[in-house]
Design brief:
206 residues; mainly alpha
Length: 206
């Protein structure tokens, strides 16, 4: 359905009706007008609900992208994965600020606000859960040691599957320092070095 064409048609019919309203009469026209009026009222109700829901979803998405959780956990990789998952589109920006704008625009254009908001809430919840420690922290540390035990080929294959956010989580949990400017390749190298060192220290202390 082309809603722009529908709007133009309704506008044209409205002007035509307004121009000839005083001259229109007859039972057939009356019945048609009554039926059309009923359908139009239902359509207007659905349209109003849609616009309200769209605005609601848009506001929620904007709030999530500006939330404290976003400041702590939002990454370009997370946005790229989310846009692909929610809209099947690719995110082109590599700068976080630009990526947020592009993500927001693409989601609105595809009317996927609710799905995108759900994705972000789940992603932030997972990040916060991991940050809290416990079994999840232990599993991340075990994964780190496992990476140190791998051959170079195995490590490259495994590390290539991970997002930048996952690499940062591995590094942070195991005390590896990095900055926002640290590249994925550099971070992978740091993880490789310190993971191997951890394995060596464990074997030496055995």
């Amino acid at each position: 359905m082309n809603y722009a064409e529908l709007a133009a048609t309704l506008h044209y019919v409205g002007e035509k009706l307004s121009k000839h309203a005083a001259k229109i009469e007859g039972e057939s026209m009356g019945r048609s007008a009554q039926i059309f009026s009923g359908h139009l009222a239902k359509f207007e109700e659905v349209l109003s609900d849609y616009i309200a829901g769209r605005k609601s979803g848009e506001a929620l998405l904007e709030t999530l992208l500006r939330s404290p959780a976003a400041k702590r956990h939002l990454t370009v990789d997370l946005l790229k994965r989310g846009l692909r998952e929610v809209t099947a589109k690719r995110l082109k920006s590599d700068d976080l600020r630009a990526a947020k704008r592009e993500f927001f625009k693409q989601v609105l254009e595809t009317n996927k606000q609710q799905e995108a908001a759900k994705y972000l809430k789940m992603a932030f919840a997972d990040a916060i859960h991991l940050e809290s420690g416990g079994k999840d922290k232990a599993s991340v540390q075990m994964e780190f040691v496992g990476l140190g035990e791998m051959s170079d080929e195995e490590f490259s294959r495994e590390i290539g599957k991970k997002s930048m956010g996952e690499l940062r989580r591995l590094a942070k949990t195991n005390g590896i320092r990095f900055t926002e400017k640290t590249t994925k390749q550099r971070l992978a190298g740091l993880i490789r070095r310190y993971a191997q060192r951890a394995v060596f220290n464990m074997s030496s202390g055995a």
